[in-house]
């Protein structure tokens, strides 16, 4: 009799609590909890052993652990891996759902997927079951939510620069266009630009669309959250939703790239495929007189030397004598050169 009791106790301690009707994990869901810490109730102690995707790291359930969601989530299903304690002690997983109005409790299991379909889950609590003997161990918990669907229209976020070439110091605009969509009213996207060659000057809103965040330039990366201003501005065709303003600051080729984007209609949101977040480039040339890349007093001296010359006759391979006005080198050119010198931060008067 003692041997039978001992074997029963040993099996209870070592074998996972089995789960009935375990299913395969659907392809349209993902583990929402991965890497998110649980916290012991009324404390700041965090525990990642449940959500580290490792069935060999776990915690004995002496305490209650909770995880709360600022925005309620819809849970499609869950899986867990647990081992029972002495005298049938186990693990309970309590889902607080329906925006806090309801609870459902399930037992820890052996790793299989089980469908839940709970709407508006606000909190998950992990607790022991049974009050006799040592509590069970929980090694893994996965909670699955639906993946963001990709619409069949193949939406695209495009960048279009209005010019092919500009000179150093010149400004230009890049239009951000949303294409291949239906009834889209909100966009959240990221833009990266070549800050070695370009200076970001700001953005210009397009009628009917407004930027509702405060974009911060993070070393050449910008995030914009844009929304339509009424049903008349729902996007159903190729539409420019924003214009970005830049200034060329160095010779070379510069790229403005839309790196990622999410869009939404009035029912759901969609993540754009990476290959549908497009870019455009622009060539930046030297436009100063001696083609050094910036305006200095030397440029003024060259055009002063060739004053009243036909600009085309002033060695066009070596010089850009034509700067303003008509085809002759005159006061218009010299005035323009001086304006550019005064705008050049690298040009400082003799100290």
From TrEMBL:
Residues 159-266 form the Cohesin domain. Residues 1-22 form the signal peptide. The keyword RNA-binding does not apply. Keywords: Signal. GO terms for biological process: polysaccharide catabolic process. It comes from the Bacteria. GO terms for molecular function: carbohydrate binding. This is Cohesin domain-containing protein.
């Amino acid at each position: 009799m003692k041997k039978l009791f001992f074997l029963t106790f040993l099996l209870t301690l070592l074998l996972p609590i089995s789960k009935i009707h375990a299913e395969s994990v659907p392809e349209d869901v993902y583990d929402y909890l991965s890497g998110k810490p649980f916290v012991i109730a009324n404390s700041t102690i965090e525990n990642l052993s449940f959500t580290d995707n490792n069935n060999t790291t776990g915690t004995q359930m002496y305490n209650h652990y909770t995880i709360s969601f600022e925005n309620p989530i819809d849970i499609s299903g869950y899986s867990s891996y647990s081992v029972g304690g002495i005298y049938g002690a186990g693990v309970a997983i309590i889902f607080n759902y329906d925006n806090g109005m309801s609870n459902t409790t399930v037992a820890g299991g052996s790793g299989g997927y089980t469908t839940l379909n709970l709407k508006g889950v606000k909190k998950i609590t992990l607790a022991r079951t049974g009050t006799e003997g040592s509590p069970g161990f929980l090694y893994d918990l996965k909670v699955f939510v639906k993946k963001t669907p990709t619409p069949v229209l193949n939406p695209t976020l495009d960048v279009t620069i209005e010019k092919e070439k500009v000179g150093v110091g010149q400004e230009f605009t890049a239009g951000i266009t949303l294409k291949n969509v239906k009834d889209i009213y909100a966009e959240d996207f990221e833009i990266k630009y070549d800050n070695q060659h370009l200076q970001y000057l700001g953005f210009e809103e397009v009628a009917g669309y407004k930027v509702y965040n405060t974009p911060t330039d993070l070393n050449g990366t910008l995030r914009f959250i844009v929304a339509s201003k009424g049903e008349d501005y729902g996007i159903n065709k190729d539409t420019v939703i924003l214009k970005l303003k830049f200034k060329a600051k160095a010779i070379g080729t510069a790229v403005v790239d839309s790196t990622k984007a999410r869009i939404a209609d009035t029912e759901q949101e969609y993540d754009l495929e990476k290959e549908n977040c497009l870019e455009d480039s622009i060539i930046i040339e030297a436009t100063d007189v001696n083609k050094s890349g910036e305006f200095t007093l030397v440029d003024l001296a060259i055009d002063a030397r060739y004053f009243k010359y036909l600009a085309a006759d002033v060695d066009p391979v070596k010089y850009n004598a034509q700067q303003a006005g008509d085809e002759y080198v005159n006061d218009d050119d010299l005035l323009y050169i001086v304006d550019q010198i005064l705008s050049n931060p690298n040009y400082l008067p003799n100290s």
